[in-house]
Amino acid sequence: MDLNDIKNYIENKIEENLNLDYKASGSLQKSDAKTNEISKDVSAFANSDGGIIVYGIKEHQINRHLPDSIDPVDRKLISKEWLEQIIQSKIRPRIDGIIIHSITVDENSDQVVYAVEIPKSNTAHQAHDKRYYKRFNFNSEPMYDYEIRDVLNRTKAPIIDIELEIIKTTREIKKPFGLPEFTFGQNGKAVKAPEPVKEYKTQYTLRVYARNTGKILANYLNAYLKIPEIHLTDDYENQNGITNLFMENTIRDIVDSKWVADIGGGYSIPKYGPSRYDPILPTRSLMLKDIKIQDSVFDSDIDLEWVVYCDNAEPRNGSHKISNIKIFNE
Questions:
Q1: Where are the domain boundaries for CATH 3.30.950 in the chain?
Q2: Which residue spans within 261-326 are E strands per DSSP?
Q3: pLDDT tens figures, 263-285
Q4: pTM of the entire predicted model
Q5: Cis status, amide bond into 93, omega within 30 of 0
Q6: Which strand (E) or helix (H) includes residue 34?
Q7: Pair type for strands 254-260 and 267-272
Q8: pLDDT tens track for 293-315
Q9: Which of 10, 38, 153 is nearest to 98 (CA)?
Q10: What CATH class does 3-155 carry?
């Protein structure tokens, strides 16, 4: 992160949400009350869905939860190392993967903004007051017993997210072979016609991956992706114009091959065994499906919604906006 990201929050009036919180510079003080509050806020993010706390942005006085202006922190009084030490010493167990971005506001001074990037944790974290907190309505609220148990169960089931990318393929259209075309000039002599202009066709493929972000092996997986039928190249069953594409983590192994004689000598046809589930290791991903899509999908900027069912985990869902999906040229 850099200063442009901080200015973007303010200029575009990005409101606080489950994954984003603004704190004025006064939130970073060396009193017990303030450091305990830091442990409360950071642990709440880890116990919920992760996110970013920005220390050094003042909230709007009237429209709460909207950023108003940069309220920098003096790095000589509050260092990045001090903030990191407070977070790690006042939260139990320690949160792995926290990143603190120190963003300089003025090159000629020690004014900075600290953006604390907090990952979603696979266990419950206790603040310094021996309570467990969660993010709720822009605030850090105490968790109920069942909510703590739910967080603790994150380590007992795989966590599957759907990742999408778009492959752009451009190929020359091959025309059928024929005799050279000729035309006649003014003197009646035949001359070869100019070469035809090459034509190209562009095709877009939506590639779907399942990534296991948990710590448990994923054995059996079913997933569904919703996409409007008008944006698909191939025909699929749809309901009210929406196709609910089914995917699973199955593969078929080549167990044998059959030789087919031909005039040119012949060729081999592979024989496949029965389908089997292909487990997904923690941190690894598996490609589930390639889907041919129309270029009209980029005009609508739709949200592609997905849901995943995996082993004994609760169903997990989410969405991806087309404009946010990376496009790769093949």
A1: 3-155
A2: 267-272, 276-277, 285-293, 303-310, 316-321
A3: 767 888 888 889 899 999 998 99
A4: 0.57
A5: yes
A6: helix 32-47
A7: antiparallel
A8: 998 888 888 889 999 999 988 89
A9: 38
A10: alpha beta
